[in-house]
Design goal:
608 residues, 21 helices, Nucleotidyltransferase, domain 5, 9-stranded mixed β-sheet, 21 strands, 17% strand, DHBP synthase, 5-stranded mixed β-sheet, alpha/beta
């Protein structure tokens, strides 16, 4: 029995396929279409799935959708009525698109597959996506995001027998922790649904100056983390902007224009918002455990991708009792819907549990396919055995070369985990700004994550011994013994703040992965990760079991999916080396005609 899950038509469209024992495939449409955050029906991902799994459409038993469209239409309609006529611009936009797939998605899906589909509630899909792949027999489940149909935060009691998920408590629109964070993100000049990572990364450069003001005027919450927003300061129920004019008046500052210079105010707003989110997130989590009488907690929803908040939560709940879905956003809803249908068909799911397999659930390519792409690229390349390739790449990394790494099945979720990664030495003080500006082509202040051998993680970071962080979902501070005696002054009272200068100040013996507050978004690596052998060889050579690991893409472009995507990204950036399955390509030494050929194809991204 094959169950197919779909999420589409809003943002982050994705597809997932499961049988009665395992997750067979999961991927976002954006990786195939090359459109960041693609919301269209995942037709290209579907084709990729059929090829990867070697099946036909006719073999799919059930098709599922990640939310209830009718209930979502009800929420939208009631919100319009409640805010009329101040929401005229929103209403006009809605009227123009009312008959579209966005509001009636199941009609076109049923027509495409020739069968009826099963729809689950949005938060129910999120909950299933995190509980079923978890290692727990029973658990509290917390879902926190912007909004599904009506729910913005939900608590479930989950177990391996029916009823698998029992809703205990929920918070409803317009009170939303996710939309609160998105509003502040938008006010600081970053794009909603993609800029939240930037806003989170900016927070350590600021001070929590606005916490008291925001608590007093914008967001109130109790000891259970239940919130109430003052909608006078928010625009998303009646305007085309997330914030209202009254927020600008309260803060005494105009919203930052996208792509303009980052102000000290933006840093302070980011810090204040992050502090509030963490406090509420922890309260919600502890409340979920209390009212379900559980020790284990599974988390999903877009807010669960805030790794700083997850790191804070780990101070209150042991890591071994936490599981966070690596594709916690709407893409993960496709997986949850497929898992729910499979669970309901099988009545009980005790063993074996569905496993995320390191989130390596996407496409892979044969040696022949990779070689053909390299031949068509006009590049000079070498074919090496796996051990030799790892040794040579480790040597390049030790000499501060950057490496595009493409190996095995593509990751599911927003983060590169060792299959589609850009790698670099963590030792270089200049590497962070070099990767940001010359290779990733993004803001200089954004931090990079460390990938570390699991058995040495506790020695380099303040992280429990023999504990995994496989999905880059938690932050941990660099161990004190590896820090530098550097006094970094972050005085945002100044009219300007030199982020590049701050980034380039060495903070530890692994400065390229040490953020300004000594934190790092940690990923531990074991034998089942395609990068393990390389990291071992790099450790033998350098004495450091840590590398920079960032996603193999440039700004405003999705992570690479095919060998051709990887070659194009390699040739149109300053990445030095490409290691793609068993093949090695060096930028240095390529012919002038090849360089000119690729200059004509240089990527030009659409700005946020």
């Amino acid at each position: 029995m094959l169950s197919l899950g779909l999420s589409c038509f809003y943002h982050d469209s994705a597809i997932a396929l499961v049988d009665d024992k395992e997750i067979l495939f999961a991927a976002q449409e954006e990786r195939f279409s090359r459109i960041k955050g693609d919301s269209s029906f995942p037709s290209l991902a579907l084709s990729g799935m059929l090829k990867q799994c070697q099946i036909s459409l006719e073999e799919i038993s059930h098709v599922t959708y990640y939310e209830d469209p009718a209930l979502k239409r009800e929420r939208i309609a009631k919100t319009f009525v409640a805010n009329f006529p101040s929401n005229y611009a929103q209403l006009a936009n809605f009227a123009r698109n009312f008959e579209s797939e966005r509001y009636f998605p199941t009609r076109s899906i049923e027509k495409m597959f020739g069968k009826s589909i099963t729809s689950y509630f949005h938060h129910e899909s999120h909950a299933a996506s995190t509980f079923f792949p978890s290692p727990f027999d029973s658990s509290a489940v917390l879902v926190v995001d912007g909004v599904g149909e009506w729910a913005t935060a939900s608590i479930f009691l989950a177990n391996r027998e029916k009823p698998f998920l029992r809703l205990i408590e929920e918070e409803r629109f317009p009170d939303s922790l996710g939309l609160f964070y998105a509003t502040m993100t938008s006010f600081a000049g970053f794009k909603v649904n993609s800029g939240e990572y930037k806003f989170m990364g900016l927070a350590p450069y600021g001070k929590p100056r606005y916490v008291s003001l925001l608590k007093e005027k914008l967001i109130k919450f109790d000891e259970a983390g239940r919130i109430e927003l003052n909608m006078e300061y928010f625009g998303y129920t009646k305007k085309l902007t997330m914030w209202s004019r009254k927020l600008s008046q309260l803060l005494g500052v105009e919203p930052r224009l996208p792509e303009s210079h980052i102000r000290p105010f933006d840093c302070d707003l980011a810090k204040s918002t992050q502090v509030l989110l963490q406090e509420i997130y922890v309260k919600k989590s502890l409340h979920a455990l209390k009212i379900t009488n559980q020790k284990n907690l599974c988390i999903a929803g877009g807010v669960a991708l805030n790794c700083v908040a997850n790191g804070k939560l780990a101070e209150f709940i042991p890591i071994q009792n936490l599981f966070v879905q690596p594709a916690s956003g709407d893409a993960g809803g496709a997986l949850g819907a497929a898992l729910l249908r499979s669970a309901n068909e099988n009545v009980a799911l005790r063993s074996p549990y569905f496993n995320m397999k390191g989130a390596f659930l996407g496409t892979s390519f044969t040696e022949t396919e990779v070689e053909q792409a390299l031949l068509e690229s006009r590049l000079k390349f070498r074919k090496l055995q796996k051990a030799e390739l790892e040794t040579v790449v480790a040597q390049f990394l030790d000499k501060n070369f950057s490496v595009g790494w493409f190996s095995g099945r593509m990751e599911f979720g927003p983060r590169a985990l060792g299959a589609r990664s850009i790698l670099a030495s963590a030792k270089s003080p200049e590497m962070q700004s070099r990767l940001n500006i010359q290779i990733k082509k993004r803001e200089s202040f954004r931090p990079f994550a460390p990938i570390v051998l699991k058995e040495y993680a506790h020695d380099w970071f303040n992280w429990p011994k023999n504990t995994e962080s496989s999905f880059m979902l938690f932050t941990a501070e660099v161990n004190e013994k590896h820090r530098c005696n550097t006094n970094i002054q972050l005085d945002s009272d100044d009219k300007d703040i030199d982020l590049i200068n701050i980034v380039n100040i060495p903070k530890s013996s692994i400065p390229a992965v040490t953020h300004v507050d000594m934190s790092a978004r940690l990923q531990t690596v074991t034998h089942d990760n395609p990068i393990y052998g390389l990291l071992e060889k790099y450790f033998d050579l350098s004495g450091i079991p840590v590398l920079v690991n960032t996603s193999f893409n440039v700004r405003n472009e999705p992570i690479v999916q095919t060998p051709t995507d990887a070659i194009r990204c390699f040739m149109t950036t300053d990445i030095d080396i490409l290691a793609i399955e068993g093949f090695l390509v060096q930028k240095d030494g390529q012919s002038e005609s090849t360089i000119e050929f690729w200059k004509e194809k240089e990527f030009i991204g659409e700005l946020d």
